[in-house]
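C-alpha cells in:
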C-alpha cells in the first residue's frame, strides 16, 4: 500500500495477488457481510434497486407507455386485419375498407417504432442503474478493503460485481414494463371484446388472468430452488476457476491439478443442472401459456359461432373478436420467463446486498479532524485488538513510539500480531482498547483517507499490475516525472537493472509481476512507496519472497533508503537490523522484549532465541 496515491487506488498495494486482504484475521473474527445477532436481514433488495431508478422514473413511464402502445398496436393490427379480410369477402366498395387498409399500414409501422422505443427506454434505465450499482459496490469495497473483505473469495466477489449485477437488469427490462403492459393491453382487449360479445369477453379475461398470473406463479415456484441457487453457484464456479488460474503453478508442483479440476467441474455441473431445471420450468410455463391461449381461443370461437348462428353476431365481428383474443395473449407470453428471471435477479440482488451491507471494519468519524500535518509523531499505548469479543487478543497491551527519523523494527514469529498492528496504523481496523495518537490527536478521529496520505508503505505481498514498470511505479503518483521515477528507483536500488533492460521503463511486468524475481517485485514496491513520499513508512515483511542470500542486501538497502524518515520495519528476518533505533519483539500479541540490536542479541531473551532459530549452528 502506498500512501499519497489517488483515493480510488489507495488500497491496491495492501492487497495480495489474488485480491485477498493482506491482513489475515484470526479465528473467531466476525465475517463481513454475514448476518450477526440483532441485525435484521434485508428481504426486499430488488426494491432497493427500484429506488435507484427514481431519478429515471420518466424514462420508466415512457418504456411502459411505449410497451403498452406497441403491444396494443399488435393486437389492433390483427383485429383490424380480421375485419379487413372478413369485410373484403363481402365485396364492398373500396371506400368502405380504405380506412382499415390505412390503419393496417399505420399499426404495422407504429408497432415496430413503439417496440424499439420501449426497448431503448427500458434498457437505458437498466444500464444506468447497473452503472450506479457497480459504482456503489466499488465504493463499498473501497471502504471494506482490505480487512473487511476476508469473508469473500476473489472469484466469488468478481461474480457478484459482474454476473450478479448483470442479472438484476431483468428487474427493469422484464419486471416493470411487461407486467404493466400486460395489464393495460389485456384490459383494453377484454373491453373491446366486451363491446361486441360479453360472454366472450368474460372468457378472454379469465384466460388472460390465468396465463398472466397463474402460469408465471407455477413457473417461478417450480424453479424456485434453481433461481435461488443459480447466483451462488456462479460465484462458486468463478472462485474455483480463479483458484485454478492463480494457483496453477502450485497445483502442478504438488500434483493436485486433478483435484482442482474436479472441484471446478463439480461447480460447473451444479450450474448446468440448475440451468436445466430453469429451462424445464421455462418450457413448462411456455406450454401452459400456449394451452391457456388455445383453450381460450377455442372458447371465444365457439361462443362467437353460437352467437352468429343465432343471428346476434355478424361474420365480421366474429372474425374481429377471434383474432383479438388470439393477439391479446401476446401481452402475457413473456411473463412466465420474466417470473423465472426475476427469481434469479432477486437472488443476485441478495448477494449484492451482502456486500453493500457488510459492516465497516473501521469507524468513520462524523466530524473528522483536519488532515494531519507533516512531520508526524505517532504514539501507541496499551493497544489491544480482538477480532471477536470472546476471542483471543491479536494484540495485547502494546506500546510503540514513532517519531520523525526514528526507525523501529517489529519482529516475531508468524501470527505474533505484527501485521495486525500495521493494519491499526493504516486504519484498516480499529483498536478494541488502548490508544493510538497521531500528532496529539486520536488516530480514530481522523478520516482514514487523510491518515493514509501521511502513513504509507508496502505490504507483505505487494500487487504488481500487468502493465509496464513505469505505470506500476506511477500508481503512487500519476503526475510524477521521469526524473522523479528515476530517483525513487535509485533509492530502491532498482534503477541500474531497469536501464539495463532492452525496453527500459516500458518493460511489461506480467500478471502480478510474473516476469520479475521476488527481490525485484519487493524493490519495485519499495520504490512505489518512496515515490509516494509518506511521512511514516511501514514495510510489512519486505524480504518475505527473497532468497536468503539477498535478504541482508535488501534489508540494508531498505534501511539506507529510509534514512531520516520515520519507519516501521515489520519482519521475521533478523539479519541487518543493527541500523534500526529499536527492536520490538512480539509474542502472541504481547511485547516480549524491546531494545537496541546489541542489547538484545546477547540478552538470552526472546530476540536471541528467534535469531538462533534462524541461524542454527551459530
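Residues out:
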Amino acid at each position: 500500500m502506498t500512501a499519497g496515491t489517488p483515493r480510488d487506488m489507495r488500497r491496491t498495494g495492501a492487497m495480495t495477488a489474488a485480491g485477498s486482504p493482506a491482513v489475515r484475521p484470526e479465528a473467531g473474527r466476525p465475517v463481513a457481510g454475514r448476518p450477526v445477532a440483532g441485525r435484521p436481514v434485508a428481504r426486499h433488495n430488488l426494491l432497493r434497486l427500484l429506488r435507484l431508478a427514481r431519478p429515471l422514473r420518466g424514462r420508466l413511464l415512457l418504456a411502459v407507455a411505449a410497451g403498452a402502445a406497441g403491444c396494443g398496436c399488435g393486437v389492433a393490427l390483427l383485429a383490424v386485419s380480421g375485419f379487413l379480410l372478413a369485410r373484403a369477402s363481402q365485396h364492398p366498395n373500396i371506400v368502405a375498407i380504405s380506412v382499415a387498409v390505412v390503419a393496417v399500414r399505420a399499426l404495422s409501422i407504429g408497432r415496430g417504432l413503439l417496440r424499439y422505443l420501449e426497448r431503448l427506454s427500458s434498457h437505458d434505465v437498466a444500464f444506468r442503474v447497473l452503472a450506479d450499482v457497480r459504482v456503489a459496490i466499488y465504493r463499498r469495497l473501497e471502504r471494506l478493503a482490505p480487512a473487511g473483505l476476508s469473508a469473500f473469495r476473489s472469484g466469488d466477489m468478481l461474480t457478484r460485481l459482474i454476473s450478479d449485477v448483470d442479472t438484476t437488469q431483468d428487474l427493469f427490462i422484464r419486471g416493470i414494463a411487461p407486467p404493466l403492459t400486460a395489464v393495460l393491453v389485456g384490459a383494453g382487449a377484454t373491453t373491446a371484446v366486451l363491446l361486441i360479445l360479453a360472454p366472450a369477453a368474460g372468457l378472454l379475461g379469465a384466460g388472460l388472468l390465468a396465463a398472466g398470473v397463474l402460469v408465471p406463479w407455477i413457473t417461478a415456484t417450480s424453479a424456485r430452488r434453481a433461481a435461488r441457487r443459480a447466483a451462488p453457484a456462479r460465484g462458486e464456479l468463478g472462485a474455483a476457476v480463479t483458484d485454478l488460474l492463480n494457483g496453477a503453478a502450485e497445483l502442478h508442483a504438488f500434483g493436485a491439478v486433478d483435484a482442482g479440476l474436479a472441484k471446478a467441474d463439480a461447480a460447473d455441473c451444479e450450474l448446468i443442472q440448475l440451468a436445466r431445471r430453469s429451462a424445464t420450468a421455462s418450457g413448462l410455463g411456455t406450454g401452459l401459456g400456449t394451452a391457456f391461449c388455445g383453450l381460450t381461443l377455442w372458447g371465444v370461437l365457439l361462443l362467437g359461432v353460437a352467437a352468429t348462428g343465432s343471428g346476434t353476431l355478424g361474420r365480421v365481428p366474429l372474425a374481429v373478436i377471434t383474432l383479438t383474443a388470439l393477439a391479446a395473449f401476446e401481452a402475457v407470453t413473456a411473463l412466465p420467463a420474466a417470473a423465472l428471471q426475476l427469481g434469479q435477479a432477486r437472488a443476485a440482488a441478495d448477494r449484492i446486498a451482502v456486500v453493500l451491507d457488510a459492516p465497516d471494519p473501521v469507524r468513520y468519524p462524523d466530524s473528522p479532524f483536519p488532515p494531519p500535518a507533516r512531520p508526524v509523531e505517532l504514539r501507541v499505548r496499551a493497544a489491544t485488538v480482538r477480532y471477536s469479543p470472546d476471542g483471543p487478543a491479536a494484540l495485547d497491551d502494546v506500546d510503540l513510539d514513532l517519531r520523525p527519523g526514528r526507525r523501529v523494527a517489529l519482529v516475531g514469529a508468524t501470527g505474533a500480531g505484527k501485521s495486525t498492528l500495521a493494519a491499526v496504523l493504516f486504519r484498516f481496523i480499529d483498536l478494541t482498547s488502548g490508544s493510538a495518537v497521531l500528532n496529539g490527536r486520536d488516530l480514530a478521529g481522523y478520516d482514514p483517507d487523510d491518515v493514509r496520505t501521511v502513513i504509507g508503505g508496502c505490504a507483505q505481498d505487494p500487487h504488481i499490475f500487468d502493465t509496464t514498470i513505469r505505470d506500476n511505479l506511477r500508481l503512487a503518483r500519476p503526475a510524477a516525472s521521469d526524473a522523479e521515477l528515476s530517483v525513487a528507483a535509485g533509492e530502491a536500488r532498482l534503477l541500474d537493472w531497469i536501464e539495463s533492460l532492452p525496453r527500459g521503463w516500458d518493460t511489461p511486468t506480467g500478471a502480478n509481476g510474473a516476469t520479475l524475481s521476488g527481490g525485484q517485485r519487493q524493490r519495485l514496491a519499495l520504490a512505489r512507496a518512496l515515490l509516494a513520499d509518506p511521512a511514516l513508512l511501514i514495510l510489512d515483511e519486505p524480504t518475505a519472497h527473497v532468497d536468503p542470500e539477498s535478504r541482508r542486501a535488501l534489508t540494508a538497502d531498505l534501511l539506507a533508503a529510509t534514512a531520516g524518515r520515520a519507519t516501521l520495519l515489520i519482519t521475521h528476518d533478523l539479519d541487518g537490523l543493527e541500523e534500526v533505533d529499536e527492536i520490538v519483539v512480539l509474542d502472541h500479541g504481547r511485547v516480549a522484549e524491546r531494545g537496541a540490536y546489541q542489547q538484545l542479541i546477547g540478552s538470552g531473551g526472546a530476540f536471541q532465541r528467534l535469531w538462533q532459530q534462524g541461524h542454527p549452528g551459530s
